[in-house]
Each structure stands twice: as structure tokens, then as C-alpha cells.
């Protein structure tokens, strides 16, 4: 029989190490290219992107080939959506707009088999050929919740008391919107809430997550953040601009 696949991100976080997952236009072919770059996982965008349940199996197979953790953001905190995403092959789940401790407990309940939760009793593509998968899956399933509304930031102390959540990811875009600063993720008041959330998560001995870029990665690591999502599109755009500038300069 096969062994359950290693969840690279979950294991690194468990050791207190930094883990980075890459996002952007996720297809199986793109995942294979990402696999050459030595990131820890792939963020599959099922909330704002075109990804549907039928796309997840092949995307996660490509992740498996390269030892990348497949982390899928779903579009709602609903049990069927969460455990179906895991059933078709995701190694990790990201759930948006978790604003209370009860909502956090609902995520855990849908993500974990008994005795921790009530995930629907089925196997998973990750369980194919794995003996006793349902007794092993809980230890290999990454659970990430998004703290992305000011109400969640205000309720963070209670949310942090919920067990079996691997990452409390502080998401800036919706947080800024909920604070009345639409599109202003770098506004000082927004950044203050983000920094305070990181400090609170660290003080509770839990793991925080953040949206990373070249400008903030060092600061966030200094604040104790260890889980990061970053996109490749800005790097591609910067490279394209540099190349086209050289074309223009050489042909003028």
C-alpha cells in the first residue's frame, strides 16, 4: 500500500520554519513550471479565480509530482464545499471571512474527520491506495483561515483559542475595505491593525500568514510571520517592462 503524501507546508510550519506558496493562473502545466522554482506549495484560487471542483484533481496531481503542497482557497465557509475540495485532492484548505470563534470551529469541523470534526466520510484522491486514510488524514491536512474583516480582528483573541487551525492569515484587501479604506492596504490605520494581529497571533503561540511581496517580506518575517502567499504576476510584469525598455533603448 502507498503512504500518505507528505504535506510539505504543514511539516515546515510545525518545525517553526517559513513556508511560501505561489499563486497565479494555476493550471497543471503552470504548476509543473512552478515546481522547478523550489517554493513549498501552490495557492489554488477557488474564490476569485476560475478554478472549479473538476479542475482540482489535475492541478493537485501536478503538485504531488513536485512535492508541492496544494492549498485551495474556497469561496465559502460551508461544510460540503470544504470537504469536497479535500476529497478531490487538496492537501490544504483556505477559508475566507472567518469572523468569529464559532465560524472558526465550523471550518475545523468540516476539515477534520472524527474525533476532531465531522468531515464527510469519504476518502480523497490523496487517499488512493493509502491504508486507513481516514485515520491518517487529520494529521496531514493544512487548515488556513482568513482574518480579513475588522470584526475578525476585533474577535481575534477568541478565534485564536480554536484548536486545529494551522494558519491565521491576515488578508489586507478586504480588511482595508471593511475599515473604510477601499483599495488602501498600505494606509497607516490598516497596517496598524495588521501589525497588531501578527503580534497577537505570535503571543498566543499560533502561526500567522500574510500576503507577501518584495517590499514587505523581510518586515513580516521579522514580526514572526511564517506562512506566506505570493504571486508571480508582478515578477513577470517587472521582467517584461525591463525587457521592453531594453528593446526601446537599443532601437531608438
Q: Short description, anyone?
A:
The protein is α/β, with parallel strands linked by helices. The chain has helices spanning 8-14, 28-34, 56-65, 79-87, 101-111, 133-136, 150-154, 156-159, 172-178, 188-203, 217-222, 233-251; strands at 19-23, 41-45, 69-73, 92-95, 142-147, 167-170, 208-211, 227-231. Helix 2 packs parallel to helix 3 (56-65) and helix 4 packs parallel to helix 5.
Estimated helix fraction: 40-55%
CATH architecture: Alpha-Beta Barrel
> Based on the structure, what is the oligomeric state of the protein chains?
single chain
Mean pLDDT, to the nearest integer, reads 96
SSE string, helices as H and strands as E: HEHEHEHEHHEHHEHHEHEH
Shape: globular
Using only C-alpha atoms, the radius of gyration works out to: 19 Å
CATH class: Alpha Beta
Total strand count, please?
Answer: 8
Total number of helical segments?
12
Largest sheet geometry: 8 strands, parallel, barrel
Percent strand equals 15-25%
Distance between the termini: 64 Å
Structural class: alpha/beta
CATH topology: TIM Barrel
CATH superfamily: Phosphoenolpyruvate-binding domains
Low-confidence stretches: none
How many discrete domains?
Answer: 1
Strand order of the largest sheet: 1-2-3-4-5-6-7-8
Give an account of the 3D structure.
- The chain is α/β, with parallel strands linked by helices.
- The chain has one domain: TIM Barrel.
- Helix content is 42%, strand content 15%.
- Strands 1-2-3-4-5-6-7-8 form an eight-stranded parallel barrel, surrounded by six helices.
- α2 runs parallel beside α3 and α4 runs parallel beside α5.
- 39% of the residues are buried.
